[in-house]
Amino acid sequence: MNQPSPFSSGRTGGPTRGDLTGIMQKVAHGDKQAFSALYDALAPMVFGIVVKVVRDRAQAEEVAQEVMIDLWRQAARYRPEAGSVTTWAATIAHRRAVDRVRSAQAATDREHAQAAREHTPAFDEVAEQVETRLESEQVRRCVRGLTELQRQAVTLAYYRGLTYREVAEALRTPLPTIKTRMRDGLIRLRDCMGVTT
């Protein structure tokens, strides 16, 4: 017999946008009852978003639980002027779900690469190491040629794996500015590396 999901809800109506804003403000102050109400209101929607991306019910429940914990921990960061609580929760849910899929794909890719290496005949590893080292030095030289702002944005996005929005938050800079910095920086890197499109 299937156990009911903690994310299913029989409720037909829920709190209004204004209600949720008030509830979120209470959650930001550590109100556990308010979080319980927030959970009841948002968990089914969060699960629905996550399961569409992850496509595995057990993993989706796990990710949805992580999202709800994020909402509890980050409640003080919510700003009503930036959008509704529902939109904010949906954004976090989608980001978490995509991260889970990417992580699973990366693990699968690593396993396939490892299996391929185990079945590939050895070749001149010294030549490969020299080529890799030369490419690394060229990349470092090219990155040093970027402006400080471009270098920060590119480093956060490509070496730490942050999204453009997370880079914007980390650098306390508007998202359009970050996108422009990234585009200009990548063009400069491409030119420096001699990559042709």
Automatic annotation (TrEMBL):
This protein's record includes keyword Transferase: no
Annotated protein name in UniProt: ECF RNA polymerase sigma factor SigK
Gene3D superfamilies assigned to the protein according to its UniProt record, in alphabetical order: 1.10.1740.10, Winged helix-like DNA-binding domain superfamily/Winged helix DNA-binding domain
Residues annotated as transmembrane: none
Family, per entry: Belongs to the sigma-70 factor family. ECF subfamily.
Region (Disordered) residue spans: 1-21
Family matches, as Pfam families: Sigma70_r2, Sigma70_r4_2
CDD domains in alphabetical order: Sigma70_r4
Domain (RNA polymerase sigma-70 region) ranges: 38-105
Ranges for domain RNA polymerase sigma factor 70 region 4 type: 137-189
Organism placement in taxonomy: Bacteria, Bacillati, Actinomycetota, Actinomycetes, Kitasatosporales
InterPro entries documented for this protein: RNA_pol_sigma-70-like, RNA_pol_sigma-70_dom, RNA_pol_sigma70_r2, RNA_pol_sigma70_r4_t2, RNA_pol_sigma_r2, RNA_pol_sigma_r3/r4-like, WH-like_DNA-bd_sf
Compositionally biased spans, kind Polar residues: 1-10
Record key words, sorted: Sigma factor, Transcription, Transcription regulation
Organism: Streptomyces katrae
